[in-house]
Write a structure and sequence with these properties.
This protein is an alpha/beta fold and about 500 residues long. The protein is about 35% helix and about 20% strand. Bound molecules: flavin-adenine dinucleotide (FAD).
């Protein structure tokens, strides 16, 4: 019997995962990726003797306490990956040298918060009570929500019952709103950054429970080494990938997707087409906005996105072993990122926990300065390249100055620097305005994801961080897996998630 052919646009983690599951189920998959590497933003790059790591701060499912452990294990052998579970997640400092540490273990975290902010005891105890309650919460990841029947929904609801009170209490609060309940200024700042002012505090709380349960480790070797494992699994399952293949258009006839056209004019057809690339480009450029409805348009108009970044990397010929993993420090003067953006705090990310990223005796540091002002950076890049370069150099110099002040005797040991802007993010990933992770998970979005299909278009699917609200590697793995399940269901096939079941 002829195997059905599937084209996937984009070889990021979502495209690779969808492809791997579809290969397991007997489909013949080809991924078209515009870059010369796979993995999308789950990437790293070499500069001098350093490996700059962009993505993975933590990987949910690195340990068995989360059902994502089973999901990753369907694709790769997690025993072959060395994970580091850090005791301290991050710390927040003030200008006088006071700090609060956010520990991974709930008891230690509670002790630290009570010690440093006794004036907030009642709120702290309520918070840690919530964490203890959520510590046993796990997401349903086995079946695509679109395929859930009444019984599945009932089971999901019953599983949720023990957590409903905690969800109700925190679900509608952003981190910024929740932080207002605390009197201690440092603890306020901790809450605001757990994970970000506009995001729901409940997601920050769930993240803390993943740390506590040792299921959000960092894989030694970094992001590209990890995404290469998924690429290898996909290729071993018989999947094909075409690099440097920039998709320009999705071909349709009679409201049915027929395949793709590349920028160079080549056409490729398939039984099903999946886009695992940027959502905005897919819907409004590759499909020219022909398959939307009021709800989807409203979401794209109003939902909040992750910003883009000025991503700065610095290699220092000194082992800065006393610097914690992530430290948020206040800036004496704000750093002006662009005319619409300035930052008052800076997070110093020290990558010492991974010795493969820097030469012996040296340290890799990275900094993420957020901005929504893609147009400014794009204009500079297009029309005034000299100023674009000067602005990059200015921000880098200011960051080094801050580092010199906080750490001392660093500037003269700097031997590698690298600055990526929103233009770099957009050019590399194709993501809308250089967003680094798709849609923000806010109280308005809750845990709801977008549909894997578009209104009125047959044989076409979408997966990845523009469908899985909140983005993140486990989210996009699941989005790819769900898409494969939905396609199997349409074809009357029983979905298999077993990498030994390759149909040659
Ligand atoms: C700085 C940073 C930190 C992060 N930290 C974490 C973390 O700690 N933990 C975590 O779980 N997640 C983290 N994430 C998020 C996570 O990396 C992403 O959500 C996930 O990798 C997105 O995968 P994706 O496949 O959906 O999208 P992408 O990675 O954007 O992949 C899309 C792919 O499509 C390709 N493409 C685009 N347009 C076209 C076209 N026209 N033709 C052909 N190909 C095309 C792109 O080149 C790319 O390869 C982080 C991301 C960043 C950037």
């Amino acid at each position: 019997m002829d195997r059905k052919r599937i084209i996937i646009i984009g070889g990021g983690m979502a495209g690779l995962c969808a492809g791997a599951y579809l290969q397991m189920n007997g489909y013949d998959v080809t991924i078209f990726e515009k870059n010369s590497t796979a993995g999308g933003v789950c990437t790293s790059w070499k500069k001098g003797n350093y490996t700059i790591d962009l993505c993975i701060h933590w990987l949910v499912g690195s340990g068995p306490a989360s059902s994502f452990y089973e999901r990753w294990s369907e694709l790769i052998d997690l025993n072959e990956v060395k994970f580091v579970n850090r005791d301290e997640y991050f710390r927040v400092e003030d200008e006088h040298g006071n700090y609060i540490r956010v520990f991974s273990h709930i008891e230690r975290l509670e002790h630290e918060f009570l010690l440093r902010a006794p004036e907030d005891e009642d709120e702290i105890r309520m918070f840690t009570h919530g964490l203890r309650c959520l510590a046993t919460f796990d997401m349903q990841t086995e079946k695509a929500p679109e395929l859930a029947n009444l019984w599945d929904r009932l089971k999901s609801f019953i599983r949720l019952i023990p957590y409903l009170g905690t969800f109700q209490k925190y679900m509608n609060l952003t981190c910024r709103q929740y932080s207002e309940r605390f009197k201690n200024p440092l603890l306020k700042k901790v809450m605001q950054n757990l994970p970000g002012p506009d995001m729901g505090i409940i997601f920050g709380m769930i993240t803390l429970t993943w740390f506590h349960n040792k299921t959000a480790g960092y894989p030694i070797g970094g992001s590209l080494a990890f995404s290469e494992r998924i690429l290898e699994a996909y290729v071993q399952l018989g999947g094909k990938i075409v690099f440097n293949a920039d998709v320009h258009k999705i071909l349709t006839a009679n409201n049915t997707a027929l395949g793709i056209e590349l920028v160079n004019g080549q056409r490729h057809t398939a039984d099903y087409t999946i886009s695992a690339a940027d959502g905005h480009a897919t819907i409004f450029e590759m499909l020219e906005g022909r398959y939307t409805d009021a709800e989807l348009l409203k979401f794209y108009r109003t939902a909040k996105r992750f910003p883009s970044l000025i991503f700065i990397s610095i290699g220092v010929r000194r082992k800065l072993s006393r610097l914690p993993n992530m430290t948020l420090i206040p800036l004496p003067e704000p750093i002006i990122v662009d005319p619409e953006t300035s930052v008052n705090d800076l997070i110093i990310h020290t990558h010492n926990y991974d010795p493969t990223l820097a030469p012996a005796g040296s340290t890799l540091l990275t900094f993420m300065l957020e901005t929504y002002n893609y147009d400014y950076w794009n204009d500079l890049h297009r029309h005034d390249k000299r100023r674009y370069d000067n602005e990059k150099a200015r921000i880098l110099a200011e960051v080094i100055q801050v580092l010199e002040k906080r750490v001392g005797d660093v500037a003269r040991y700097v031997e590698m620097t690298d600055v990526a802007t929103p233009v770099s993010f957009r050019n590399f990933s194709g993501n809308w305005n250089g967003s680094f992770e798709g849609w923000l998970m806010t109280p308005e979005t809750g845990l709801k994801h977008l549909s894997h299909t578009l209104p009125g278009l047959q044989n076409f699917y979408m997966c990845g961080q523009w469908v899985a609200v909140g983005g993140g590697l486990p989210g996009v793995l699941l989005s790819g897996r769900d898409t494969a399940q939905i396609i199997c269901h349409k074809d009357g096939l029983r979905f298999e998630a077993d990498k030994t079941l390759v149909i040659a």
